[in-house]
Amino acid sequence: MSSEPSRSSHRARADPAGADLAGVRNDGADDDAIDVAVRAVLSSAAARGVVIIDGRSGSGKSTFARLLVERWPHPDGVQLLALDDVYPGWDGLFAGAAYAHARALMPWAAGRGGTWQRWDWARDRYSEIIDEVVPDRALVLEGSGALTSLSASLADVRVWLDAPADLRRERALARDGDVYRAHWDRWARQEEQHVSLHAPHQRATHVVMTA
């Protein structure tokens, strides 16, 4: 893996309600469609449940996750794990999703705290800094590859976002620029494999078109 930066610029800030907003960004999705869907999800999300947000690149996942976390209505707050933080490189869609499932989602479901580390793209390995997932707060797992046959059984709410391919590509490249342009096809092939293997749109409780 090269020393290129991650596909996303990782930013963290504390939400007044105690939410962790690490790794989210605006990805240019249709704000009205996202807003309606976020309200629908919030009306059905459990105070200490799991929400999984999946979709191909440029479909609006990060915008959806950001709004969901910002508007989370339950007083205990919510924690977010974005797969962009744990993909081990440009060929790592499946490995990143499996890592998050094993290190965060499964321990959370078993009532234990989970730990995970961000992928360090400059050093081509996981960072030494350890982040935690605590079992007494709701969990949002967001990213391409997140919704599988295994993860679906652990999530109260499962969201699949989609948009036409040309619009998704335009959004993603406007967001991430030339760094992503060189890898678009490479990443899209992994997304298509994920869709073929796991049919995430069929496992979703909410299917949202963001165009």
Low-pLDDT sequence parts: 1-7, 9-26
Helix coverage percent: 25-40%
Choose one word for the global shape. globular
Largest sheet: 5 strands, parallel
Helix tally equals: 8
Distance between the termini: 34 Å
Backbone structural class: alpha/beta
Average residue pLDDT:
87
What share of the residues does DSSP label as strand, in percent?
A: 15-25%
Strand arrangement within the widest β-sheet reads: 2-7-1-8-9
Order of helices and strands: HEHEHEEEEEHEHHHHE
Number of strands: 9
Radius of gyration over all CA atoms, rounded:
16 Å
What does this entry show, briefly?
By secondary structure, the protein is of the alpha/beta class.
Describe the structure.
The longest helix has 17 residues, at 93-109. The N and C termini lie far apart (34 Å). The chain is 38% helix and 17% strand. The protein has a five-stranded parallel beta sheet, sandwiched between helices. Strands 3-6 form a two-stranded antiparallel sheet. With 211 residues, the chain is an alpha/beta fold. The chain is built from eight helices and nine strands.
Topology:
Elements: H1 31-44, E1 50-55, H2 61-70, E2 78-82, H3 93-109, E3 114-116, E4 119-120, E5 125-126, E6 131-133, E7 138-142, H4 149-152, E8 157-162, H5 165-176, H6 178-181, H7 184-198, H8 200-203, E9 206-209
Parallel strand pairs: 1-7, 1-8, 2-7, 8-9
Antiparallel strand pairs: 3-6, 4-5
Helix pairs in contact: 1-2
Name its key features:
211 residues, alpha/beta, two-stranded antiparallel ribbon, 38% helix, 17% strand, disordered N terminus
